[in-house]
Amino acid sequence: MITSRSSYLPMQFSSAQIQQFQQQGFLVVDALLPPEVVTTVDDRLDPLFATRFETGIYPDEWHGRPGLSQPNATRQMAGMWRCDRTVASLSFSAEIARLNAQLGGWSGARFAMDSCWLKPPNAPEVAFHRNNTYVSCIDPATVITCWIALNDITPDMGTLEVVPGSHRWQCADTFKFVHAPDYDYRQPLWEAAQQAGVEPTQVEVEAIALPAGGCVFLHGDLWHGSGRNCTEQTRRSIAISTVPQAARFQPPEVGVGYIFSRYRRLGDDAMDESFFPILWTPDGYRSPMAIAYCGDILALE
Ligand SMILES: O=C(O)CCC(=O)C(=O)O
After folding, report:
1. So what's the pLDDT on residue 9?
2. DSSP 8-state assignment for residue 271
3. What residue's CA is closest to ligand 1, atom 9?
4. 225 CA distance to ligand 1 centroid (A)?
5. What tens digit of pLDDT does each residue of 53-81 get?
6. DSSP character for 110?
7. Which backbone phi and psi does 134 adopt, to 5 degrees?
């Protein structure tokens, strides 16, 4: 449980940054988290993969188990806030929710998902996809993700790859398992480009380099994936995704939501604030659950 304040200073986007996000579908910020926040959160992750859960509650999704999986398997865990309240204090931070909401042009932000992606040396690729595909059971099916580097990440470490402007492509994505594809991990991207009428030579893939604590904000329709880690160092990152405050579930038969739909109430399309807390609104409202459950590691007061 976080009780002390960090040295985080509130960030304000310039209009040029917001315009860049709208045009490119992503925005890189080199310094978001102060070093002590990076260390505090990162220190909690390896114990989770050793099944040491502070709350005793298991995550929603868990890939890569030391001793059981291939040693180079990507360790990804989603729904970590359930397992550890220090991680939750970042996942539920009002600031990240505010920044996501500001880029989305939303009047408030609701928590959707947290997920860490630890890629050991030689970790395989992550297939290209759009994050909105994974929230299609939610209305509106629009998510913004703040993907944060927990160590210095260079392009050869299997970093995140994005395709500038691809959030505006008219094309479909299909729900798929993205880990270690047995096909070219960019194949879904090439198919999307073809559907959108974009020549392969016009598709620019940008590998994001970031210092620890830096981040990239991702539009939910942006095509992205990641390559193999060709270094001797583990690539460490955490992604925090939010949806608009007013989001509700689609009718039960609409869209995909293999994690989200577990928390749907019978006969009710409201997103329960116990599972999807409202994290930021301009008037300061936060779901009581988020306040009671953990501190806010980026709290400003
Ligand atoms: O970190 C990665 O390699 C992939 C992350 C990703 O696809 C995401 O956060 O949406």
Report:
1. 85
2. -
3. 239
4. 6
5. 999 999 999 999 888 999 999 999 999 99
6. E
7. -90, 0
